[in-house]
Amino acid sequence: MTNKLLVGTTKGLVVFERSNHTWKVSKVHFMGLPASMVYVDQRTNTWWVGLAHRHWGQKLHFSTNEGENWESVPTPKYPADAEIKPGKRATLKKIWCMSQAGPDKPGQLWLGTEPGGLFVSKDNGQNFDLVESLWNHPSRIDENQWFGAGRDFPFIHSIAIDPRDSDHIYIAVSCAGVFETRDGGTSWEPRNRGLIAAYLPNPHVEVGHDPHSLLICQSQPDIIWQQNHCGIFRSTNAGASWDNVSDPKGIADYGFALAIDHQNPDRAWVIPAVSDEVRVAHDLSLCVCKTEDGGDSWVPLREGLPQEFCFDIVFRHAMAIQDNILAFGTTTGNLFLSDDQGNSWQCLSAHLARVDYVAFA
């Protein structure tokens, strides 16, 4: 049973713990520092935290005993000859996400960063190397199709690994799109057919899309979901093509956060927002939208959520699901939890700093 919830905020990592059906704060780690990445390696129950020091830059910490003690590892570095563009050396701006390989590769971890670098570790995160096959992909180097989206540089924010094969991996880049490897990162192919880049002269370009979040269904890995800048998309053929499953008559469209049911590939949740320019809750009313039929229809869920003068939105990593429990944190420091698949919500805290990451442990 899920008993701990890790909440990465701009003022530290806040740990909520459940006791007698009540969730309360049990500890705050890295007080005052932005916890910009939070990840739990389920193989070893190792907690990972990326910190965004204002002076020292990005730092990477881990704990093997649920936060009783923390250790640090060397921050991933771009090689000296790696350039964002000719004459501009690549340096680490932010650690965005982490993902573990399957049991066939017990020491392997993947790390997504800004400015668009994917790193891999084969020794449980003690050392990370840049995946140069992706960094040097022609779409980035020769065709200059990677660009920043709301930030100065492109960034890798989602890594989805096929549970059947640890060499089969998808990554999502804002802005570039989805890329796939079937050989452990030796080669990469864009997988963006069916996506829409409405902000480009040609909305159907092969590379140049802006996925906001990408998730692969663990029980049926050929089904992949993404919340995109231009809507909600779903693939039923392992990313070969994408279907737009946004709600044409409702608000389930633009947003960042996405959660999926790993046992039921037709069930998913999103938290809509008003456009990239506005970025507030629709009608200043916080809502979670749920589908039970693969995106053919969406139902708004509002019970327990603020419905008046609510400016909250939810960032891409600030929503999580485990054991049918859903939780999300907002840009105004509210934390909500549902134990009935999103039909009703309770507010665990209304006094946090901005929430960037939510993860169950």
Structural class by sheet pairing and helices: mainly beta
In CATH, the architecture of the largest domain is 7 Propeller
Q: Please tell me the total number of domains.
A: 2
Can you give the mean pLDDT?
Answer: 96
Weakly predicted, low-confidence segments: none
Radius of gyration: 19 Å
The span between the termini is: 10 Å
- Report the biggest beta sheet as strand number plus sense, adding barrel if it closes: 4 strands, antiparallel
> Would you tell me which CATH topology of the largest domain applies?
Methylamine Dehydrogenase, Chain H
Individual helix count: 2
Query: Given this structure, which CATH class of the largest domain is correct?
Result: Mainly Beta
Helix content: under 10%
Shape estimate: globular
**What portion of the residues fall into strands of 2 or more residues?**
35-45%
Total beta strand runs: 30
**CATH superfamily membership of the largest domain:** YVTN repeat-like/Quinoprotein amine dehydrogenase
Strand order of the largest sheet: 3-2-1-30
Give a nutshell description of this structure.
The protein is an all-beta fold and 361 residues long.
